[in-house]
Amino acid sequence: MSAQQQPGAPPNPVQIFSTIQGYQRAFALKAAVDLDLFTAIAKGSRTAAEIAKNCNAAERGVRILSDALVVMGFLLKSGNSYSLTPDTAFFLDSRSPAYLGLAFNFLLHPSQLAHFEHLGTAVRKGGTPDEQGNLAPDDPIWIEFAKGMAPMMIPAAQAMAGLLAGELGSRPSAKILDIAASHGLFGITVAQRLPKAHIYALDWANVLEVAKENAGKQGLAERYHLLPGSAFEVDYGTGFDAILITNLLHHFEPSENEKMLKKAHAALNPGGQVIILEFVPNDDRVSPPVPAMFSLTMLGSTPKGDAYTLAEYAAMCRNAGLETPRLVPLDPMPQSLVVARKPF
Amino acid sequence: MSAQQQPGAPPNPVQIFSTIQGYQRAFALKAAVDLDLFTAIAKGSRTAAEIAKNCNAAERGVRILSDALVVMGFLLKSGNSYSLTPDTAFFLDSRSPAYLGLAFNFLLHPSQLAHFEHLGTAVRKGGTPDEQGNLAPDDPIWIEFAKGMAPMMIPAAQAMAGLLAGELGSRPSAKILDIAASHGLFGITVAQRLPKAHIYALDWANVLEVAKENAGKQGLAERYHLLPGSAFEVDYGTGFDAILITNLLHHFEPSENEKMLKKAHAALNPGGQVIILEFVPNDDRVSPPVPAMFSLTMLGSTPKGDAYTLAEYAAMCRNAGLETPRLVPLDPMPQSLVVARKPF
Fold it and tell me: Nearest-CA distance from B130 to chain A in Å?
C-alpha cells in the first residue's frame, strides 16, 4: 500500500496516478465477482474466449479485465491461459464456503462511495456531514454486511471461541451476549464450541433475521435468543459470563463507548469478560497499514467514529470498571481482540 | 500494485479487502488536494492542529486524513509532526509549476466513476455501454484534462522536443501538426526548442481555447495555429515535418487508428515522422503495471479503445505506409513514444 520514494530519485507522478486510479481496481475486482469470473476459471475455463463463454461476456472485455486482475495479483497468466491464485480460489470461487464476493455489496455500497466522494467535507467538519452516517436504526446496509462479511470474520470467531472454551468449557452452562451480532458468526461459533451455552444476539431487528436464520441452519435455535434494538438502549439483562462487542465501538466517540461498556459491566457476572473485536492501530496511528487506514473509513462514514489504539480502548474499559485490558492479535488478520474483565 | 501470495501461506483476505478499499485512498488524496493540505505543510504547518487551522478544517479530520496519507506514502510522520515527501512537495504543493492537483478533476471526474461503477456491463459488452463514452464532440471532460494533465506530460514533451530538435534543428523552418493538442504542452515545448517552427494544433474547439491561451502566455501566438474539430474529419493540410499524436489512439480500434495514420501519412513531407505518445504494454499485456492497467481504463470509458502493444502500433503504422516503427521508452514515466517515418 505504501511505497516510500528512493532518496535522490527524480520526481515521479506514478504513485499519485496509481492511487487516484485505485477506484478502477476496486471496481475491476467487483466486476469479476459480478460476472463470477473466478468460479468460471475454477471450473476449468482458461483462455479469455472460454471464460467469456462461461460468463456470458465479450471475449475482449474478459481479456482486458483478466489481464488487469493479473497485474493486481488476483490471477496468474501463462501464455494466453489464466489461473487462480490460492487466495482467489479460497475467497472468490462462489462455491467456496469462504466466498467473499457478497462482502463487496457492503464494502462498495453506493452509500459508502457517496460518503467518500465528499470526504473533503468530512475532513472540514471532523466527521461525515450526514447526521448519522450509516448508524440510523435498521439501515439496510447492515443487511449487506451481515450477508457478506462473515467469511472475513472466521479466524476472529474461532479465536473468540477458543478463548471462551478455555475459560468456560468445564462449566455446566454459560450465558453469552453477542452485541452487534450481524451474521451471527461469533455467537454461533462460540455456541458450537460450548454445547451448553446460550447466546443472546443483539442487533437491529432486520439484521437479527439474518443471524437467526444462520443459527437455525446450525441447529442452534433453542440456544439462540434475540435482543432487537440499539446497543445503547436495549436492556441486556444480567448474568452473562462473556459479552462480545464486534465491529461496533469504532463507530462512536469514547464517551459513548464507555456508556456501552458500563452497560456491559452491569450485565456481566463477576469475573466475566468483555471481548471486543476491532481494528487497533499502534500508538503511532500509522501502522499496521490496514488498522491505521480504518480510521479514514470511520471519518468518512460516521460522525465521530475512529480506529482506537489499545491505550484508548484500555482507558474506556477501565473507566467502565473493566480491568486488566489486554490485546490479543489475530495475525495475519488485520483485526485484534481487546479483552477485559469485571472484577470478582 | 501487485502482491504475489507467498507459497504455502494460509489464505488471507487482506489483499482483497485493501483493493476494494482503493476508492477510499483515491478520495483521500483528492480530499487533501481539495483542502490544499500539502501546501499548508509546505508553508510550515506541522501538527494536525496547525494544518487544520491553515486549511480551515477540523483538527480531528486533518489528523485522520494525514495519518492515512502517511500510510499511503504521501506524507512522513515524526511524533505528531507531518512533513512532505519529495514527490508530494514537487507535485502537490499548489504553488509548484508541476502541481498535479487539477489533474484529479479529470482522473476522478464523476463520469469516470460512473463508467467504472458499471464496469461489469462493459466487460459483458466488450466496451462502455455509452454510445461514445467520453468521445463525443466538445465533451467538457477534455477541458479538465487540458487544465490538469500538462504537468504529468512534461517529460514526454521534452523527449519529443529533443527528438525533433536533433532532426529539424538545423532547418530554416519546420511545420508541426499537434493532434489532440489538449493543454498544448507538446507543441509549445517543440516550438520553444525550434524557434522557426510553426505549430498546428488540432482538438475540439473548446479545448483549443486552453491550448491557445497557454501558447500565448509563452509568446508563441504568431507561430501557433488552430485546427478545431475531429482528428478523423478535419483537413490537416500538407507539408508537415512531424505529426504528434498524443494520448489519442488508445481511444479507438485499430482500423480507425489506421485511418488517422493514413491521413497523417498524406499530410507529411517525405521523410517526415509521426510521434505517438501512448501507454504501451509488453506483449504479455500484464507488464509493466501502469501501461497494462491502462487497457482497463479504456474498456471502462470507450467503446473500443485499448492499450496497444508495440507490435500492434507497428502494424497500424505499416498499414498506413509509415515505416521503421520503433519504441522510445520514457522511463521512469509509464508512457512511451512510438515513432515511425514516411519514406522518402
Answer: 15
